[in-house]
């Protein structure tokens, strides 16, 4: 049985992390708020590492650089394809 994907506000995530930090067991938080253990664990890890819950804020420098390079590579491929098409059109004249 699969669950429907839910989204939670940063305020809610922070509140769950604070409950855990104040001594409430993970399994009680998960059960009481109908969360998945992996989601709560991820929020705790994100809060401890950066204090933020956004995916891009939790990337390492290498991951950010890799993401930037992939985006740049995709842009250059598109530009290259456009230039090839233009060359074909100009060559027909």
TrEMBL record:
Pfam families: HTH_Tnp_1. InterPro entries: Homeodomain-like_sf, RD_transcriptional_regulator, Transposase_8. Keywords: Coiled coil. Residues 52-86 form a coiled coil. Signal peptide: none annotated. GO terms for biological process: DNA transposition. It comes from the Bacteria. GO terms for molecular function: DNA binding; transposase activity. This is Transposase.
């Amino acid at each position: 049985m699969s669950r429907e994907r839910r989204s939670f506000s940063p305020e809610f995530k922070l509140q769950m992390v604070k409950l855990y930090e104040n001594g409430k067991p993970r399994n009680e938080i998960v059960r009481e708020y109908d969360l998945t253990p992996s989601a709560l664990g991820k929020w705790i890890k994100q809060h401890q590492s950066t204090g933020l819950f956004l995916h891009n804020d939790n990337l390492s420098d290498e991951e950010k650089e890799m993401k930037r390079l992939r985006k740049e590579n995709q842009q250059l491929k598109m530009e290259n394809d456009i230039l090839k098409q233009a060359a074909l059109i100009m060559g027909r004249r």
